[in-house]
# Entry
Amino acid sequence: MSGAYRACLAHGCNLFDTAESYGGGLLGGWGSSERFLAACMREGGEAAAAPPGPAPVIVSKYIPLPWRLFEPRCMMRALQATVSRLEVEAVDVYLVHSPVATFNSIKTLASSLAAAVDSGLARHVGVSNYSEAEVRETHRVLAEAGLPLAANQVEFSLLHALPERSGLLDACSELGVGVMAYSPLAMGRLSGKYSAANKPRGARRFGDLPFERIQPVVDLLARLGRQHGGKTPAQVALNWLVCKGAVPIPGAKNAAQAEANTGALGWRLSGGDVGELDEAAVEGSLKLGQHG
# Structure
């Protein structure tokens, strides 16, 4: 995966998304994703021929576990640990991983985000999986502190178009809140690699649609890709998100996958193309931990 990191930077893609809770498998456990990213950055910085392009922009997240809501310093301690694991002076964008609509937590978490910026350990702050109402409340609290709400990171793809259809996208645009789209390829289901006869193996958390419903969307992506000079279904799916004003954050396990993702940039679907995809898109539904 370090090859994927270098390939991203070499192609000008410099936003890297992680979280304190990401890890497991080959990476280890809690915080291991942040430590792995730190190793990639260290290796890149020490390389004799470091990849050209902009410096990395790091996004990480604080998970508001229930017992953390009663201790205001919990976010600050978590942020300090994140900064240490990442081996940076400050996190570029620090997000609340998911909303907890109890104990007046939306306001409390927003105030903690403001404190994170004041501490100098986070340059910008945002949220993830927040509903329109929660975004508005967080935006209000941060505005009172003289701070912008940088982003709301939500599941958004052609198989989960709910953020647009619910009005969340419009609300974020109105407030000047950026939208980051996670699972932009629906855990690979929009890549064109899979079908009803060749389903992905293992657990795919956000894959509750039958392939009979997915295949027409993939077929349309393939057709539009051919019309745009041989773009892949995945590249078309990512470009659709760019056309919606979102920043897609696709995963990549190796340099080849990272380079393929960059093929979504430097061109644009037509208005007619976007309209066709809008009609084919699946609204989707909210899952555990998602409010928006």
Remarks:
- The radius of gyration is 19 Å.
- Residues 13 and 176 are 22 Å apart (CA to CA).
